[in-house]
Specification:
- This is DUF4219 domain-containing protein.
- By secondary structure, this protein is mostly helical.
- Helices cover 52% and strands 0% of the residues.
- The chain is built from 13 helices and no strands.
- The protein starts with 19 loop residues before the first helix and ends with a helix.
Length: 339
């Protein structure tokens, strides 16, 4: 005998009147997949109770001498009856097991063990008939439906049609023209002229059908140019500017000019030191460099011992600070020496 299909792990769970219509349709499919060899019956047929009678059992015929004249025939019929009972019992138990998985814990008391027909009828009687409040909620959802403007509308149209089926399951029949008008109202932004075109080309109400509106919307979507996603600019990249490294200050993006500038700065510092060294060299070539005379109020007088031990630094400071009591001619000679 076959077992329950592995898809049972995806069985929908009954929530109440709000999803009974769709739940019952899916459950019919799952129950129909429960089969067993030797019989055309399924889990769904035993659940609905639409099953033929069991094969008859032939009673043994006894003659005057007390002998059974049809022992083989009676035995075969009895065996056939027992085998069919075993098959139906398997289908019934499998259907009950599937129904147990399809209801929440709060509804387990509605399961009638060994009788899927009574269980199904009880669930249908409690949740299969929608009240006015539930139907009104579905109707409000339908009239406020909106098709997406950035994707194929086929799936959304199918969901709307399923909602109409759920409303009509409560014996509230929706005319086809009302369905078509609700779908026309649901067209996305940018396709409003499509609804006007459909209404202008139809002269009678009977011409406005669901299939007409569906096919027109689908054709308009297939002809609509698909927008390619635009590549976003980095937030630190301006118009006409190459991507760069904001930390290095290099808009070119190679990250080398900033480092080259840093090395250039070191070269500039080295050039200044070379200038001081050249100034020292000129002192030996006959240009007299007069030492500055600092007063008691000099701002650098406190650092004189440390500076005296570093001749190059002393000459550099001397070139930057104008001596307080030096004559103009002395300052001129000092600037010449520094150059």
């Amino acid at each position: 005998m076959s077992s329950i299909n592995n898809g049972a792990s995806r069985i929908p769970v009954l929530q109440g009147p709000q999803n009974y219509q769709f739940w019952s349709m899916r459950m019919q499919g799952y129950l129909s997949m429960i089969t067993t060899p030797g019989t055309p019956l399924t889990g769904w047929t035993v659940t609905t109770g639409l099953v033929p009678a069991l094969p008859p059992v032939i009673a043994p015929a006894i003659d005057d001498d007390g002998n059974v004249t049809n022992a083989a025939e009676a035995s075969a019929s009895q065996a056939l009856r027992l085998e069919e009972e075993h098959r139906r019992n398997f289908l019934e138990q499998s259907a009950i097991g599937l129904l147990i998985q399809a209801v929440p814990d709060s509804m387990l008391h509605l399961i009638v063990q060994g009788d899927p027909t009574a269980t199904w009828d009880g669930l249908q009687r409690l949740y299969g008939v929608q009240g006015p409040a539930s139907v009104y909620g579905d109707f409000v959802r339908a009239v406020s439906w909106s098709l997406p403007g950035n994707m194929d509308p086929a799936q959304s149209i199918a969901e709307l049609e399923s909602l109409f089926t759920q409303i009509e399951g409560a014996t509230a029949r929706l005319p086809e023209v009302i369905r078509a008008m609700i779908l026309l109202r649901a067209v996305p932004q940018g396709m409003e002229t499509l609804a006007q075109s459909i209404l202008a080309n139809q002269t009678q109400m009977s011409q406005l059908t669901w299939d007409l509106v569906c096919s027109t919307i689908q054709a308009a979507w297939s002809q609509k140019p698909q927008q390619q996603p635009q590549q976003q600019q980095p937030p630190n990249q301006g118009a006409g500017q190459k991507p760069g490294n904001p930390q290095t200050g290099n808009p070119g993006g190679d990250g080398k000019k900033g480092k080259r500038g840093k090395r250039g700065g070191k070269k500039g510092k080295g050039a200044a030191n070379e200038a001081v060294t050249d100034a020292d060299a000129t002192n030996t070539s006959g240009v007299t460099n007069v030492a500055p005379q600092y007063g008691a109020s000099s701002a650098i007088g406190f650092a004189a011992p440390a500076i005296a031990n570093r001749p190059l630094l002393a000459n550099r400071i001397a070139s930057l600070a104008e001596p307080a009591n030096a004559s103009p001619s002395t300052s001129t000679r000092h600037l010449v020496a520094e150059a």
